[in-house]
Amino acid sequence: MSASPAEDLLQQWESEQARLRQQVLEDDTEDWQRSPDFSGLERVGGVDLSFIKGDDVNACAQLVVLSYPDLQVLYEDSQMVTLTAPYIAGFLAFRETPFLLEALQRLKKNQPTLLPQVVFVDGNGLFHYREFGLACHLGVLSGLPCVGVAKNLLQVQGVNKSEEHQSQIAALQRGGDSFPLIGASGKVLGKALRSSDKSSKPVYVSVGHKISLDTAVRLTHACCRYRVPEPIRQPRRRKLCRQFQTIR
To answer: Which residues span the domain enclosing 65?
Structure first.
């Protein structure tokens, strides 16, 4: 019996993830990453896809670029988009990456001097079912260092909201404290980070591309005024897609 179209699509996507996964670099590749104070880092980007409530097809693809270390907005781009790929857990990148990549490509074409040196992604990187989340996908296709920062714990590869996990969260005393997210294989897939003294609820940081986990965690903390790093918080706070108001 032949596979259904949905099964064919999943096989195609799994194969594509496996192929691109081989290209992920989990080490620091830029001089600024090796500096204690990130000397040489001037521009940090953030991408996000925001959905209209009750609508899982129309969304707002957003990109901001902030100065570093003062985190002031240098550039912003927002586009209403219509998603065509279906939502399937573990394959979110196939729905979202094309539009986020387009935003980066528009910036590179129109104002290349503002291209970010690193991109924060509202989602996971290596902390994923097959170690290839949205931040990895965007990183490999864009060629830019990427960091995945998720607000909620993805219960995957043996990591779950156990009593031990909750006690580890409670032990995070101040901003910058973290603990590793260790999969069933023993590999560290990411870290839970208390990103701010003001918030006891952690974020979950993982490597996207061209950066080490320790550097990704340190940079995430450096970019946090509140719980969520500014490059990701800014698009939601600024409500860049004004069309949302008219659509509603």
So the answer is: 5-247
pLDDT, tens digit, 9 for 90 and up, residues 35-57: 999 999 999 999 999 887 788 88
| C-beta separation of 158 from 150 below 8 A | no
Query: What's the number of domains the chain is made of?
Result: 1
Give the residue among 90, 105, 99, 119 at the shortest CA–CA distance from 58: 99
* pTM recorded for the entire structure: 0.93
Q: Determine contact, residues 176/157, Cβ cutoff 8 Å.
A: no
Looking at the DSSP bridge assignments, the partners of residue 245 are none
The CATH number linked to 212 is 3.30.2170.10
